[in-house]
Amino acid sequence: MARIAEEWFAICGGCEVTILDIGEPLLDLLPQLEFVHMPVIMDHKYYGQTGEKDKIEIPEADIGLISGGVRNEEHKEIALEMRAKCKTLVALGTCAGYGGIPALGNMYLTDDIYEKVYRQSETTDSGDTPSSGIPPLTDRVYAISEVVPVDIVLPGCPTTPELVVAGLTALLGGAPLKLSEKSVCDECPTIREKKAVSTLKRPLENIESVGKPLDQVRCIMEQGYLCQGPATRAGCGGAEGTPRCIRAYMPCRGCFGPIRDKANPMVDMMGALSSIGLDPKQIPDRPATFNRFAGAQGRLRPLPRR
Ligand code: SF4
Ligand code: SF4
Ligand code: SF4
Fold first, then answer.
1. Ligand 1 mean position to 160 CA, how many Å?
2. CA 137, 119, 107 angle in degrees (round to 5)?
3. Neighbours of 30 (CB within 10 A)
């Protein structure tokens, strides 16, 4: 029986829904798991059941899962406690692994974010930045591995039920889990002709050949749509192989994060676009677009003030 502790930081909750989406294989795993901490389903108090403790405390566990990046000082404290109490720590989903969508905020200084949200937003009455009873924001969004050592990253926004099962099964059996170091393109069955394209199309225009078998469809990027398959880690297709968005005749948005931990998706995408004659300058917000899911670990920084 493995004791599991799960935490969620700067997230949307989608990665927790993925755990439910596992479906029947979860019934096979459950007899081997004992959930000792999971705020999404359990009313576990951080400071003891009656608030008697003076520091955050999480029960000891064999496997710790954290979804979401670190966005405030409380997240940081909980991450340190999770690392201290969990034998193995798993970053669940791309927010935890690479910052995810919340790390787009890393393009702005925290004071500018407060200013925008509390004083410049047209839909909010202007007021002071709240400071009482809530933890202060950190200076930026951090991937979990920037705060504490992480043993495994299960990427994806959300991560996939198959990957969660593979990760838990590997951990329960004491085997390592190795992520693919291929790109989404390597698992994409569409036809690449390396023919030049001159303009990028809007993402909502219909792609050619929707409904045809994918091995008869021309590469979506070579049709002129921005597809981030060349710069994105493979694996979202699970046992079937074909990447999830490509199966739906949609371009890859890059949600599995960089192909390797130190890779730079912006450099990889500039190269891929140039190789088929597309000028990357057609994309006005290149840093945010190419690092949409991977803005932590220094990939996105505040823009110089104008
Ligand atoms: S990785 Fe995506 S689905 Fe998971 S918590 Fe972050 S935003 Fe939500
Ligand atoms: S660019 Fe997109 S559509 Fe083309 S091969 Fe790569 S993943 Fe497939
Ligand atoms: S195709 Fe790309 S965006 Fe879609 S699920 Fe796979 S990695 Fe994520």
1. 11
2. 50
3. 11
Which residues lie closer than 8 Å to 217 by C-beta, 6 or more apart? 190, 191, 207, 208, 209, 249
How do residues 82-98 score in pLDDT, each as one tens digit? 999 999 999 999 999 99
Q: Please tell me the residue having the least CA distance from ligand 1 atom 5.
A: 11
**Residue 44 in contact with residue 31, Cβ under 8 Å?**
no
- Ligand nearest the Cα atom of residue 188: 2
How far is 168 from 19, CA to CA, in rounded Å?
A: 11
Task: Give the pLDDT confidence score for residue 295 in this predicted structure.
Answer: 96
Q: Give the whole-number percent of the chain exceeding pLDDT 90.
A: 82
Burial class (CB in 10 A: 0-12, 13-18, 19+), 236: buried
The listed CATH number (3.40.605.10, 3.40.50.700, 3.40.50.1000, 3.90.180.10) that belongs to domain 2-106+131-173:
3.40.50.700
- For the four alpha carbons of 257, 155, 152 and 234, in that order, the dihedral sign comes to negative
| CB of 252 closer than 6 angstroms to any ligand 3 atom | yes
For ligand 3, the distance from its centroid to the CA atom of residue 255, given in whole angstroms, is 5
Work out the mean pLDDT of the chain and round it to a whole number: 94
